[in-house]
Amino acid sequence: MDGVVEKREDETYEAKRERLYGPLRSAGVFSWETIDGEEYALADPVGLSHRLRRALAEASERLGRVYAKVTAVVREADDALLRQLGLPEATFGAVRLPMPLQAATVVGRFDFAETPGGVKMLEWNSDTPTSVVEAFRVNGAVCRALGRLDPNEGMASGLREAFGAALDAYRESGYRIEEDRIVFAALDWHEEDAGTTRYLLEAAGIGGRFVPLSSLRVYRDRLCVLEADGETHTPVDLLYRLHALEKLAEERDEDGYPTGAHVLDLISRRKLAVLNPPSAFIAQTKAMQALIWSLHEQRTFFTKEEHEAIGEFMLPTYMDNVFHGSAPYVRKPIFGREGGAVELFDASGVSEARDGASLYWNQPAVYQQRVELPRVRVRTLGGDVDGRLLWGAFLVGGRPSAVVSRIGGPITGNEAYYAPVALQE
């Protein structure tokens, strides 16, 4: 197994950590290296072999093509299938919109477990992925400071290419998008969301500006920015949103007006272009994993190569619990994030680990074959900790891109650590 955590004995862990993250924190690049006073970013890099690096890239690219193929068909399906996949009805018009992009999303992140049987995909964060700054910006800075090889070197250029291609595709399909009406929006009070969005604004190279979500308004049948004077409404032509569509579908203003549904309607009527595109939301639901696995088992729809990719890199996933009494399994809500409402069971159905937060438990769920994340031991400010290693692999514009690692418990949740990654020489 890869994931050996390397350390140097000639400086304290605390000093090393400050040497690595102090400059990034002071520059405002990575202000969330601690979260709520708790350590988030670890100082010792995780080792990554060239073999595993290639496997993550191959799995990402091949599964990305599978998802693009299925997403294109689902987009044209009837309401019944969209409901089965858990999509809110308010999103139906937007997700059915013919998209000018070949890939299902512009920036997505697969989560993989390294197992004795190879890398296995746990889920795809295709709609609003995070860990972007950690992978594309922080990892390189840490590797340079430690004199190590960065597996993500040069990958940031792919972000510029993908965003530029997406903008061109929208314009070529008839959208009128002016540079001063491009907006990158997120919760400005949330350090990670705002920092991630600001980084993508810079990396994308398509112009525009950062705007807090709280400054967006529906005005005269357009999504607009309410400017600082409190009166001027500037229309938005293209919106990058670090804001999930399932949340948008439920949002109402103070008077109860369904603002989120109106925005989704603007998207469906081509009065607003969005990145990631609505197709990314189709791919985000974990019910898509069950659909893909079902088609794979039926030996229909996919090519021989696609069936091979699914069998090699995906896990058996179903909308019904077929594992009880036969194999360990995982229950996952279809739109859960950061390990929310995930529960691990043994073959007899006894719960062995359960997310402790309250979010997402009311959602429909999928049942997935359970695999174990590799064990690692890491240094932290509080001492040595035993954890489980999860690999993230980005797909940008349909191409494999940067990798990132998280270290947590059997369920990788909000409390998991970020660990930089260095190529093993």
The counted number of beta strands is 22
SS element count, helices: 12
Q: Let me know the largest β-sheet.
A: 6 strands, antiparallel
Low-confidence stretches: none
How far do the termini sit from each other? Answer: 16 Å
Radius of gyration: 21 Å
Strand content: 25-35%
Structural class: alpha+beta
Indicate the percent of residues in helices.
25-40%
Word description of this protein:
- With 425 residues, the protein is of the alpha+beta class.
- It has 12 helices and 22 strands.
- The strands form 6 sheets. Strands 4, 5, 18, 19, 20 and 21 form a 6-stranded antiparallel beta sheet that branches. The chain has a 5-stranded antiparallel beta sheet with strand order 13-17-14-15-16. A 4-stranded parallel beta sheet has the order 7-6-11-12.
- The longest helix has 25 residues.
- The two termini are 16 Å apart.
Quickly list its features:
32% helix; five-stranded antiparallel β-sheet; 425 residues
Topology (SSEs and partners):
Blueprint: H1 13-26, E1 34-35, E2 38-39, E3 46-48, H2 50-74, H3 79-84, H4 92-95, E4 107-115, E5 118-125, H5 132-146, H6 156-172, E6 182-186, H7 191-204, E7 209-212, E8 216-219, E9 222-226, E10 233-235, E11 238-241, H8 245-248, H9 259-268, E12 273-275, H10 278-284, H11 287-297, H12 304-313, E13 317-318, E14 329-333, E15 343-345, E16 351-354, E17 365-369, E18 375-380, E19 383-396, E20 399-408, E21 417-419, E22 421-423
Parallel strand pairs: 3-22, 6-7, 6-11, 11-12
Antiparallel strand pairs: 1-2, 4-5, 4-19, 8-9, 9-10, 13-17, 14-15, 14-17, 15-16, 18-19, 19-20, 20-21
Helix pairs in contact: 1-5, 2-10, 2-12
